[in-house]
Specification:
Layout: H1 5-31, H2 38-67, H3 76-98, H4 103-120, H5 122-137, E1 145-148, E2 152-159, E3 163-167, E4 173-177, H6 178-181, E5 186-188, E6 196-204, H7 210-223, E7 234-241, E8 244-253, H8 259-277, E9 286-289, E10 307-310
Length: about 300
Amino acid sequence: MIRLRPLIAPALLLLGIAGITFAQAEVGRRFGIAPLGRNGRNALQMAAYLGLAWLLSRIFGQLLARLRPQSRPLPKLLGDLVSALLFLTAIVSGILLILGHGAGSALAGSGVVLALFGFAIRNVVADTLSGIALGLEAPFRIGDWVDIEGLGRGRVVEIGWRTTRLLTRDSTYVILPNSQVSRQRIVNYSAPRSEFRAQMEIKLGHATPAAEGADLLHKALREAPLIRQSPAPDVRIQAIEPDGVRYALRYWLGRFDHEWECRDAIWREVDAALRRAGIPLAQPPVALLCAREGGATPGAGMPAGVPVDLR
């Protein structure tokens, strides 16, 4: 339901202007007062345009509040943009009217001026409209930790008219145009809830049986601080490859900004466990390239340019 209180002031302004316009002729006839001149009429029409823009902006704000999703805040950016366009149209129409154009031609002329102005600032308009879309869809909110593919990763601290500002974990700002943000893949680590699962990978040599390696890594993983014990962390065998067995250490975190500290703690626990057990990491094969230099013949009867696999 539309609330009437915010509409009282602009409605009274329009009623006052209408009353003055229709009463001026009668007042002049009865009391011998000259009617308003051209400048006076133009001033009244300018005030009427502004009053109408004021009234329409209030009505649109209430309609927008009724149409918004229940779980999302009102995108103030959209209401501000519509209000600015309404008042800009009223001002341009009033100026054209003062310059001698009729009311209809003034409105048409204001549309042309706005179109030219919009073309001149099309990049700003694209960023602004993208900001409105981000406000309506709400893929992230203030305080969320996000990763915007190819642009930046950090905590959202501001969603403005043209830009979105992120605060990285290095305490630096990343300011991104909204038009670029809306075109990229966005990963929100704070939605639908703040906790999320991360994983790390490590490869051990074939000298360590896969089950024994997984059990050792799981014990080390459970000793790491900051990770959640419910849901419990686990270790999965990713693949058995020629140079070793690749494991995935999966764990849950309560906050994204703890990720670096948690990874450091996990690697420390894993390193200590491997050293106590005397288990080395997988060693990649070393390729030795036998090349012919200065006419010398490669040793051991091997042809030139053949890689030798040394394990």
